[in-house]
Amino acid sequence: MENIPKISDAEWQVMKVLWEKSPITANEIIARLEDEQSWKPKTIRTLINRLVGKNAVGFDKDGRQYLYYPLLPEADCVRDEARSFFGRMRAGVLKPMLAAFIEQQKLSKDEIEELKRMLDR
Amino acid sequence: MENIPKISDAEWQVMKVLWEKSPITANEIIARLEDEQSWKPKTIRTLINRLVGKNAVGFDKDGRQYLYYPLLPEADCVRDEARSFFGRMRAGVLKPMLAAFIEQQKLSKDEIEELKRMLDR
DNA sequence: TTAGATATATTACATATGTAATCTTTCTTT
DNA sequence: AAAGAAAGATTACATATGTAATATATCTAA
After folding, report:
1. Nucleotides of chain D within 7 Å of a protein C-beta?
2. C-alpha torsion angle, residues A76, A82, A100, A21 (rounded to 10)
3. How many CB atoms lie within 10 A of CB B11?
């Protein structure tokens, strides 16, 4: 695997939007984030540009607008974050947390089977 | 539950040591971290002091040494981190995350069985 | 064709973080 | 008692991050 650049907390929100739908314009990103976040449009543009600088996001020109899209697979980034997250915790505290998480998620039968298969490895 | 201060990545390593055993001296913290981390003793002292500044760690004087101990419950910090971690992810990316978890943790047979039982709910 | 409007580019600035080194105060050991 | 060792306090400094504002280029409407 390549080295995935560090994506900050705020930048993750932008990536989430792009993984949901892309390519999209900066204004669409802004529109999708303004409900949940209290960021000014300029702030969001800064985040987008930083992600471009990190090669996490690319764009094509469409007239004088840009159409942005993610350059990194979501699964890779998630895996990376998870690894660092789990790396911070001591082993003992993870199981209860994971238990709560699994309970909270509604998993399909298929997903459950797949998880069990992963556990068997 | 008060407002838990932000604990950085590096600071987490110090907190882990303190949750494992406390109160302990700075030198003991350093000794326990030097195997895993490649930090200089001074670096670790800086981290300790920052944690003290954040009221995440307290100390008692023992002669001219200090004995440090955590001021924050591990469970609270873990919950906080987990919340922020899950907040970054879109729903449906659970599987890669679990893959990382399973890979990272060395789970015993018992633990695997326990997780499978949880999945069977 | 000219003044907005609008998109992107550049600049700003405080705080956080990683990563230490140097300074000061005490203990110890000759 | 003086010098060196050791603990803690203070200072350092580059990069990251949150959070924008200002500058510039370009399109559009009057």
Report:
1. 7-12, 16-22, 26-27
2. -40
3. 20
pLDDT band at A115 (very low <50, low <70, confident <90, very high): confident
Q: Which pLDDT score is estimated for B104?
A: 64
Domain boundaries, chain B: 9-70, 91-121
Look at the domain B9-70 and name its fold: Arc Repressor Mutant, subunit A (1.10.10)
Which helix H or strand E contains A43, and what residues bound it?
A: helix A41-53
Rounded to an integer, what distance in angstroms lies between the CA atom of residue A44 and that of residue A47?
A: 5
Does the structure's ipTM exceed the value 0.90? no
Pairing mode of beta strands A65-70, B57-62: unpaired
Contacts with B74 from chain A: Cβ below 8 Å: 90, 93
Is a pLDDT exceeding 80 seen at residue A91?
Answer: yes
Closest Cβ–Cβ partner in A75, A93, A101 for B74 = A93
Q: Which residues pair with A57 in a beta bridge?
A: A70
Q: How distant is C1' of D15 from CA of A8, in Å?
A: 14
Residues in chain B with pLDDT values less than 50: none
With an 8 Å Cβ cutoff, are A90 and B116 in contact?
no
The helix (run of H) or strand (run of E) holding residue B96 is: helix B94-104
Q: pLDDT digits over A54-75, tens only?
A: 999 999 999 999 999 999 999 9
Mean pLDDT value across chain A:
89
